[in-house]
Amino acid sequence: MSEAQKHVWEGAIPLQIHLHESEVTTLPPPPPALVLAPRLGYLPLLISLLKPQFSSTLPPGVDTIWFEYKGLPLKWYIPTGVLFDLLCVEPERPWNLTVHFRGYPSNILLPCEGEDSVKWSFINSLKEAAYIINGNSKNVMNMSQTDQVIWKLIDGWHRSLSLELLKMNIWKMLVQS
């Protein structure tokens, strides 16, 4: 494995996540959350880490979590590493993001209805990749629920499951004809 591939597969990005000032209802405001996010992961999968940190300071209302960077709402269906590479011309460490639990910009972002939305977006991206590599996506289309271990590993990467197994399964599925 090349150094670049290793960087992508095993890489993580340190995040410093602040609650947006308009959603802080206590003094002093809560400290930012410090998270090591996998490059292959997705920001909405961090909800379970962030919600406990900020829930006591939120105004009343329904949670509709979304993230922004320097005022730009971040597309939840793009992996964290890709967002970082696209938006940080001069990489900052930690990457300072703002989380919102209210005021979802539905005119700008597609709705994210939780982990299932992230899962199906990932599976659709996998279909596209398989089509580009093989000229068809039948390997992905024929996956049974039990074959969807790949998603469980992506989601589990947030919970420290085996990255090596994830690499082998994705590659095997994409190159099989």
Structure description:
The chain has 177 residues and is α+β, with helices and mostly antiparallel strands. The protein has two domains: 3-100, Ubiquitin-like (UB roll); 115-175. 40% of the residues lie in helices and 15% in strands. The protein has seven helices and five strands; from the N terminus they run αββαββαβαααα. Strands 2-1-5-3-4 form a five-stranded mixed sheet. β3 (66-69) and β4 (72-73) form a beta hairpin. α4 (115-134) crosses α7 (163-175) and α6 (149-157) packs antiparallel against α7. The radius of gyration is 17 Å and the shape is globular.
Classify the fold: give the CATH topology of the largest domain.
Ubiquitin-like (UB roll)
Any idea what the CATH architecture of the largest domain is? Answer: Roll
Overall mean pLDDT stands at 82
Q: What is the number of domains? A: 2
Structural class: alpha+beta
> DSSP helix count?
7
Proportion of residues in helical segments: 25-40%
Write out the strand line-up for the largest beta sheet, numbering strands in chain order.
2-1-5-3-4
Distance between the termini: 23 Å
CATH class category of the largest domain: Alpha Beta
Q: In angstroms, what is the radius of gyration?
A: 17 Å
Low-confidence runs of at least 5 consecutive residues: 159-168
What percentage of amino acids are in beta strands?
5-15%
Please state the overall shape, judged from the principal axes of the Cα atoms. globular
Question: How is the main sheet built?
Answer: 5 strands, mixed
Question: How many beta-strand runs?
Answer: 5
Q: Give the topology string: H per helix, E per strand.
A: HEEHEEHEHHHH
